[in-house]
Amino acid sequence: MAEKALFDFHGYIQGCIQEIEKKYNIIVVLAVESGSRMWGFPSEDSDYDVRFLYVHNDVRDTFVVDERDDTISFQDANPLIDCHGWEIQKAISLMVRGNGSVMDWLSSPIVYKEDSRIKALIGMLQHYLLSSPNISRRLAHHHRGLCKRLYMEALAKDQLSKFKIKDALYCVRSTLLMCRLYQYEDYPTGVLPKVTIRDLLDTSARSDWKLSDDLVHQTNLLISRKIRAKKEKDCAINLTEWSSVHGFITENMDFSLPAAGDRDPRCTDAANATLRAILSW
């Protein structure tokens, strides 16, 4: 008996992007997968978190006096697909401030659409920004903040005994990134650490900065359990019973990171030059 054909979500999402471009009169220059699917631990019913960068099709929509939205949220009829985009100016501005989202998107292994010229320009800007200790520190603070928010929200609601596996893996991933970025000397060439949690575990295992075998083992068990889950909402653990994962999160959550300091004006100049080059096309 022939197997039932799998639904082509990739092609369907590319159609959603075309619909967004037509509806909002924009050009999507980069569209990728984010969230669990990008980071390597999707459940069977995980959403497709589509994230994109865009420019206006009509340049007159870029240069206006009135305040306007610089984000687009699009909820498709398919409830599994969630599309959210940032105007290119907003994205580049946040990169200079040390927001890690765009940096993650540039490294996503799942790409729905890209303008290779613009992605190359933004990639060169990312490379330059990551060569600055100021930006690496800002990114370290960014990822530590993501972990701390998830953990403290659960603690405040007395939910550590029913902690979502997805959130536990988010916390581990953010903490791994924070620790790697703090070791700035490991990235003198402006290379961002890998985005998937398994790559981060593997990179750490091959470096001078060693993780405990039990932490790696427990994290891999959580990844396997998350991937096998049919319903993400039913995927929870008592976090305190996973001692190595819990300890890794809490021990690093209040780690004293150096202050990021003032923004490097050379980074701002590079960002402005990148934006002008993109908008001139």
Kindly provide the radius of gyration, computed on alpha-carbon positions and rounded to a whole number of angstroms. 20 Å
- Helical fraction: 40-55%
Q: For the largest beta sheet, what order do the strands appear in spatially?
A: 3-4-2-1-5
Q: Report on the biggest sheet.
A: 5 strands, mixed
Bin the strand percentage.
5-15%
Question: What shape does the CA trace take?
Answer: globular
Q: What is the count of DSSP helices, taking H or I runs of 4+ residues?
A: 11
Structure classification: alpha+beta
Q: Would you kindly provide a written description of the structure presented here, covering whatever features stand out?
A:
- The structure is a single chain.
- The chain is α+β, with helices and mostly antiparallel strands.
- It contains 11 helices and 7 strands.
- It has helices at residues 9-24, 35-39, 88-96, 100-106, 116-130, 133-156, 165-182, 197-205, 213-228, 243-253, 265-279; strands spanning 26-34, 48-56, 71-75, 81-87, 111-114, 163-164, 236-237.
- The strands form 2 sheets. It has a 5-stranded mixed sheet with strand order 3-4-2-1-5, with helices on both faces.
- A hairpin with a 5-residue loop joins β3 (71-75) and β4 (81-87).
- The longest helix has 24 residues, at 133-156.
Note the main attributes of this structure.
single chain, 281 residues, alpha+beta, two-stranded antiparallel ribbon, 11 helices, 52% helix, 14% strand, disordered N terminus
List the helices and strands and how they pair.
Blueprint: H1 9-24, E1 26-34, H2 35-39, E2 48-56, E3 71-75, E4 81-87, H3 88-96, H4 100-106, E5 111-114, H5 116-130, H6 133-156, E6 163-164, H7 165-182, H8 197-205, H9 213-228, E7 236-237, H10 243-253, H11 265-279
Parallel strand pairs: 2-4
Antiparallel strand pairs: 1-2, 1-5, 3-4, 6-7
Helix pairs in contact: 3-4, 3-11, 5-11, 6-7, 7-8, 7-9, 7-10, 9-10
